[in-house]
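PROTOCOL LOG
Step 1. Enter all chains and additional molecules of the complex.
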Amino acid sequence: MLFARRDFPMFSPFMSSSDRRKPYPFDVFEPQWQAYWARNATFRVANPGEPGFDAARPKYYVLDMFPYPSGAGLHVGHPEGYTATDIIGRFKRMNGYNVLHPMGWDSFGLPAEQYAIKTGQHPAITTAQNVARFKTQLQKIGFGYDWSREIATSKPAYYKWTQWIFLKLYNAWFNPATQKAEPISTYTGPDPDRVRLAYVSEAPVNWCPELGTVLANEEVIDGKSEVGGFPVERRPMRQWMLRITAFAQRLIDELEGLDWPQSIKLLQQNWIGRSEGAEVHFSLEGSDRKITVFTTRPDTLFGATYMVLAPEHHLVDEIAAEDQWPAIRDYRAKTARKSDLERTELAKEKSGVFTGAYALNPVNGEKVPIWIADYVLLGYGTGAIMAVPAHDERDLEFARKFELPIKLVVQAPSKTLEESRGFCDNGTAVNSGFLDGLPTPEAKARIGAWLEERGLGKRTVNFKLRDWLFSRQRYWGEPFPIVWENGQHRAISESELPLTSPELADFKPTGTPEPPLSKATEWVRYSATATRELNTMPQWAGSCWYYLRYCDPANADRFVSEEAERYWMGGGKPGSKPGGVDLYVGGTEHAVLHLLYARFWHKVLFDLGYVSTPEPFQRLVNQGLIMGEDGQKMSKSRGNVVNPDDVITDYGADALRLYEMFMGPLEQSKPWSMTGVEGVSRFLARVWRLVMQENQASEWEMGPLSAEAALDKAQQRVIHATIKKVGEDIEALSFNTAIAQMMVYVNTFTAVSPRPVAALRTLLIVLNPFAPHLTEELWARLGAKFGGFEGLVADQPWPEYDPALLVEDEVEIPIQVNGKVRDRIVVAKDADKAALEAAALASPKVREFTGGKTIRKIVVVPGKLVNIVAA
RNA sequence: GCCGAUGUGGCGAAAUGGCAGACGCACCGGACUUAAAAUCCGUUGGGAUUCACCUCCCGUGCCGGUUCGAGUCCGGCCAUCGGCACCA
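Step 2. Run joint prediction.
Step 3. Record the structure below.
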């Protein structure tokens, strides 16, 4: 290993005098170590079957949410999660794991394209520039990524497989009998196009005129686009959809086994929005048509006094009375014109129009009027409701406004019937015929059975989740591997992949629903009779499976080899954990977007036998937001954005890393503080000066060190307590307390001269995952003079601690009287109860407080405290 | 409205039900220096009392409970932040 030393940075250029102001010469050695790691591919990890692969080691897959390479460059929020995973990755490496820790670029999609439009350059060029910039920035922080696995979703070699997965979706259906995705060939029904997981639908979609594209429900927030915050309106368009709703139940059920934050699980659960209830058929007066409604409260059927259809409901055309048509037409037009934003803003005031038609309540034959109102949504349930104004807030509001009858059918516990008006919880059925006297849950069961027996309805489950609108009218995205002929779509063959985007000088959105790809007249024509699909896939497509590609990024024959997938994703071992990425760190903003979409795709691939685990991400951790120094969210307009490059220039990469971790718990949001950065920078300088000192010529030279110095008990205790605590804290992702412990360590040995080399050695190892540059530099310098510093710190095994050295011979025990500390005594660490009790009672101060009182009880916790209860 | 998270010094924060405030920032004092910066050492939750380094009282958003003992557990509120929001 010695011959390799020549290669080490410490032997290259000297510091110039202008560097003397730096607390330690990080600006010299940090870039040198980064170059060293890159040159030697230090963090490269071999796949099974490759040279250098060590099958004896366990695997650990630690993943970051890869960034959009936007024009703005990195901000300090990125390195927070990235530093956490880097520490874990380096730590696991030192503990003998094969660590997969990759990085790549989510380089397709709106942000990249908008930046390109803004700067007037082709997105391929701006994306390449942005990627180069992001990569430089990340490398300046010294992350131990295996850069040989770098991927970019916008590269044909990558998106070939995104398109390939789309074809798998297109050629699959969800078999309700098996509750699994299966090849479309197992479908025996009449029209396969009606059950494909990727299908075309003509439906009202979220159209954003400003962005010139449609958006998924998940991308619309408060009626505005998630990107840019532009208004979104509904308009019917022909679009590609993915049948994520088929997996709704499994997406809920299979959350259970995941080690995810409870809040994210709930967010997904609520977004999927399962609700149990019943469908009830109402027959129409004077017609043989039926209206089917969905309700979660079939037990209130006797209280249904009117019905409401969504304004767009197709039955309206058939049932509306002649004289009501003008009003209905008018109301429908008004509803259609409203954007989602207006519709939610006006949510307070109920509106609607009577259709002139009546339905018959199946339970008692009563005539109930049928209205239309925009508070009933076409897309949920059946687009029709039975209104029970007595026990539903919205129905009550509506009934009051339009003076519709209100019939009380549920009595609230310990209230009169009249007081039960507007009561929406569980109570007792009244005025409900054969349901009278039943508590709500039993009434629900009874009426459900009753309806089913008579064919008047059935118990059913509904989800809020909608199918995923999967096409975008953009240039910078994956083209669909689909062609159209005679109004019919069909897949192109896998051998034609990747289907690359056409070269386009003008790639801007057309401003109409016509996608920009329509401008590529040559490309569009597939054959004499067939044309290509013009839409592109959304941003999320590439990020739905990138974690799989990292396992085998250069594979030209398969999206990931079976062997690599099984090894890194870790499934298939009976009795083991469910498998998947071992640790995934990222922000909460993807709770119902990327994280839901990726789970969906993964399940499809799992069902079809392409991956070995049902879930992609075993353990998920959300890092908190980093706020500006003013406590506000960082934003350009507020001028409180911190650029990591500046921090590195002034304090170094190690200080940036350390501060990001020392700020507070990873999951919490917290404000940035430059004086805080200075604090950790001072700490790192103290570590530097444990080894180095400045001579008269202001040059750094080795300080007084001793290889022989014996460590006293207190020093040994600090060393071993630190090994223990830092190791445990890293596992628990409590990086801030790990750093605090290392500060204690450094404070202890700052006071010691000459410095015991053994203590320095251990410190460099435990500090290495946090401050890799500084520790490698000092390690190399110590290695030039002392033994035991061979190779890289990063390659050292994590030290073991000796529990025997952790315990003190004597401990100070607080003595409480009635729960208040009155004295402290020093006793042997293993003093037993009797000895402690005697010592406590002997204390003069204790006597002072117990004098004249009766001692009722003495609580003794050996090694902890004594509490005397006196009265 | 519903769901979730969070409330501890001047600030970021620590505390298996067992000495509240580790560690860092800031502040103040001391050493070194012609001086400053840097560095090193030390004080710092609030209040009362004292010549004092002694001693006492109060203190983890608020109210109550469990316990020998509560920042931590239980019940009820309040505030801030985040998500969902006419989902029948």
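Step 4. Note key features.
Confidence is low (pLDDT under 50) at residues 1-20 of chain A.
The first strand of chain A starts at residue 59 and ends at 64.
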